[in-house]
Amino acid sequence: MQTGPRKPSQPEAMLFDLDGTLFQTETLLLPAYHAAFGQLREEGLYNGPTPPEERILGSLGMLLEHIWQRVLPEAPPAVHRRLDELLLQRQLEGLEQGVGNLYGGVADTLRTLHARGIRLFIASNGLEEYVKQVPRATGIAEYFEGFYSAGEYRTRSKVDLVRLLLDRHHISSAWMVGDRSSDVEAGRRNGLTVVGCDYAGFRSDGELDGDDIRITQFAQLLDHLA
To answer: C-alpha 210: how far from its chain's center?
Structure first.
């Protein structure tokens, strides 16, 4: 993380990771995770215990195929694909029921950024329907110009997803805001200012190294605008 008196100028756009940055993922994910494994056992596709929650939480930010390789490495690809379906289904059901919370200050901060004319986007390695439904269900969708997901665009990394977003919207100045090393890499390799979010508790030591700005509450984002 760079330090010093320089305050970055206001960017044309801000790109946000979703899980662990805007959305308190565990409030929706963990009930869905246990329910998905329960159904997997009912279907006879898996007979063991549900893997520890720490495995799924520590995998957030990865592509889904890499998440299941970490969470359930012994299972065949067909089981991983079924877990994709079950987890998405359970999470969407939860969102419809009002399950899941934003981090404190997210809605007000996004409203302020939008009012200042900054273009806002989500860039996530998640599935398309999930990445679009979370903002709708939590009441923040109106502030965003676009929702970009690896699930929709079939990108192999967040670097590629962010590059696609920047090119499509002709953005020349932007900040990448996120909580994982994939966000830092995506910002760095696309020439963006990187804001590291250090409040979700999912990251490993050193994972945000290379960021330009570090925040411990979402609303602190406003303090770093010129």
So the answer is: 18
Length of the chain: 226
Tokens encoding 28: 């929706």
Cα–Cα distance list, 32 to 15, 112, 213 (Å): 27, 32, 33
What confidence tens digit (pLDDT) does each residue in 150-184 have? 999 999 999 999 999 999 999 999 999 999 999 99
Domain ranges, ordered by start, for the chain: 13-24+101-224, 26-96
- Classify strands 119-124 and 13-16 as parallel, antiparallel or unpaired: parallel
For residue 177 the two structure tokens come to: 């805001």
Give per-residue pLDDT as tens, 71-119: 999 999 999 999 999 999 999 999 999 999 999 999 999 999 999 999 9
Q: What is the CATH number of domain 13-24+101-224?
A: 3.40.50.1000
Determine contact, residues 226/9, Cβ cutoff 8 Å.
yes
Q: Residue 99: how many CA atoms within 13 Å on its side-chain side?
A: 16
